[in-house]
Amino acid sequence: MDRTAVWWRTPGPRAGRGRAAVAGTEAPRPTGNVVREVAPAPHDLHNIAGRSDAMATSPTSTRTPATSRARDVAWRGPDPVRTEAAHVVLGPDRMAARGTSAVAGHALDWVLTTGPGWVTRRLSVRARGDGWARRLDLVRSDAGTWSASRRDATDGDGEGHGEGHALDVTGLDAALDCDLALCPVTNTMPVLRHDLVAAARRGGGPAVDLVMAWVDVPDLTLHVSPQTYTALGPADGGGALVGFTSGTFAATLDLDADGLVRHYPGLATRLAG
Description:
The chain is mainly β. The chain has 3 helices and 16 strands.
């Protein structure tokens, strides 16, 4: 892992989850088969949802039950030292979440909603520090088009009410997910969509290549991030070990049965929930 500063402003995005690689960097290739995720046509999302409903009630699947339920989860992070908390509502084919993060120099709050197939619909993020604030709104339409705007304020109102401007979304056509730096919740969508917990509990599966709309913090800049997830094997309590690579960074994630992070080396360790 590149142990350079994670959230301080440095020249360009860093490697890893919370250190996501940008397009054009070379990631280590997992051994075995590799599946490349392709953005579905809008009508295919309903097919994904239908398959998800069937899997949710299958005795061999570990996906979320057919009825929605809520989880309140908290983590601590070592670099930078911080606390993370999230309220996550898990449904049979989608999720909604809101959360907060606090470090010495700023506070962050965010709201995430997905549509069928756990595909991102909207991520809203607000970062606030001493005398500054900024806000990002990231949206993926039902037609698969991304848009993003950021508003900055330096008047101390703490709301990011400054004039907004559009961000470049070039290269995100294949992306289905947002990925908020240092936030363990945004690992969950691709894990659920590709049923990686069940695959890991069966002993493993092929690597899945993904493209993410990665949001750096506290800058709230937007980047194209190639990432790879691989189901590796079972973990305690019905959970799973899932490999993650991005750029030169690689880690093994310990997930619970719902696909939520319990331990992400160097990024987050579960405190509660």
